[in-house]
Amino acid sequence: MHSKWRLLLQPRLPGYRQMAIDETLYRLAEPDTRPVVRFYSWDHPTLSLGYFQDYKRVVCEPFCVHNKIDVVRRITGGRAVLHHDEVTYAIIAPLQYVFEGRSLQETYQLIAEALNLGLQNFGLDQTSIFAGDTGTSRRESRLPQCFVSVSQYEHVSNSRKVIGSAQKRSRDRFLQHGSILLDFDPHLQQGCVNHPDPQIESRIAPLNRMLHRRLEFRETADQFAGALEAKFGIRFELSGLSAKEERLASELERKYCDGEWTRGSCK
To answer: Is 234 helix (H, G, I), strand (E, B) or coil?
Structure first.
């Protein structure tokens, strides 16, 4: 097995660039390639839609335009996330090594256990992994925003969501990425979508508020990277994009800037 995984730290890039990089790494995660972990952030507020979401039903376009909020569509499922004050993680790997023979839910669970170690590294022992489903979460799943309910193997603190994740999976590889929420702007969160949940602020647990201090990108990435190393028994090698990855990412940027991809129906 590969005991050295690649680690990419890519803060403050546009949403179209971040989505292009995630898809690039997913496309190139051939069997026997090294797993890749990315931590990244966004250069300004960006609303990402789940692959199957309807743009017109979800996005409050006048508000987004007025407040300079970009909109992108992910290749993963799930619901809309406003990426603002957060660190985003992504794990891209062939279905080998620690992931070999694991189902989608088993992969979620394994990664959730690693992320929970990261939360414990901050001294947040009150966080836990949500292992079930409830009628309430099923009802809330009809709302457009990711953070209004907790799905199986996501992280909660006193029933409030801490990290939201989504996964794309094929026969031999997967991409899982998710938002590690640091803080929350209720004005932007409520305004960027149609039919927002008025109770969303009571359903989330941003890390800055739990810790009573402001986390920076590098500290957050380092703590979670250390947790992944401990959980999987690996070491990270700091990396950048290869020439091949850079070429494909540049090509895919055009897709994520294209209104047909973002506004169109992917159903």
So the answer is: coil
Any residues with CB less than 8 A from the CB of 177 and at least 6 apart, and which? 22, 38, 74, 76, 88, 89, 90, 91, 165, 166
> Which has the closest alpha carbon to 117: 107, 127, 105?
127
5 class by beta-carbon count within 10 Å (0-12 exposed, 13-18 middle, 19+ buried): buried
What phi, psi does 51 have (nearest 5°)?
-50, -40
Burial level of 185, CB count in 10 A (0-12/13-18/19+)? middle
Report the relative pairing of strands 173-181 and 160-169 from DSSP bridges: antiparallel
pLDDT in tens, 92-132: 999 999 999 999 999 999 999 999 999 999 999 888 888 76
Task: List the strands of the sheet with 70-73, edge to edge.
Answer: 70-73, 46-49, 81-83
Q: Which residues are catalytic?
A: 146
List all residues 6 or more positions away from 241 whose beta carbon is below 8 Å from its beta carbon. Answer: 8, 21, 24, 249
Tell me the CATH class for 4-261.
Answer: alpha beta
Does residue 214 surpass a pLDDT of 70?
yes
* pTM, entire model: 0.93
For the chain, report the end-to-end CA distance as a whole number of angstroms: 37
SS3 170: coil
Domain residue ranges in the chain: 4-261
d(Cα 17, Cα 97) in Å, to the nearest integer? 29
Spatial strand order of the sheet with 36-42 comes to 127-129, 155-157, 160-169, 173-181, 86-94, 36-42, 4-13, 235-238
